[in-house]
Amino acid sequence: MMSEPSSTSKQTWPWRDSLDALVAAPDYHTLLFENERVRVLRTRIPPGGTAPIHMHRCPCVVFIQSWSDCIRRDHLGNVLVDYRQGSEAPKLNTPTWQQPLPPNSLENVGNVEIDTTSVEI
């Protein structure tokens, strides 16, 4: 889920703007702040919830307030990561760099709300 900076530009992004997290999954993403340089999003997925197919076009710094077992799937439904299968859980309250995420869904299969804040560059 987390990785190093990328040179991916908006001009080369192949996905539709309608897949933006705020448009495609508004029940799970809230805009906290936006200007011409950054956008700050809060993502909350309750236990048993699934954020539908959406994307995060820009790289960002992520702060994870709470985490749970979850499954990330691509836009075709293929499992990308199942955090129950030995994937290391991310560190809480530690800033982490994240690459842009192409269309994916995130299903919370655990007992704790997933709660993150992302500062998109």
Task: Provide a descriptive summary of the structure in words.
With 121 residues, this protein is mostly beta strands. Helices cover 3% and strands 45% of the residues. It has one helix and nine strands. A hairpin with a 4-residue loop joins strand 5 and strand 6 (79-82).
Please report which band the strand proportion falls in: under 5%, 5-15%, 15-25%, 25-35%, 35-45% or over 45%.
Answer: 35-45%
Structural category = mainly beta
Number of strands: 9
Helical run tally: 1
Radius of gyration: 13 Å
* Strand order of the biggest β-sheet: 1-2-9-4-7
How confident overall, as mean pLDDT?
A: 90
- The proportion of residues forming helix, as a percent range, comes to under 10%
Query: N-to-C SSE series?
Result: HEEEEEEEEE
Shape: globular
First-last Cα distance: 17 Å
Largest sheet: 5 strands, antiparallel
Poorly predicted spans: 1-10
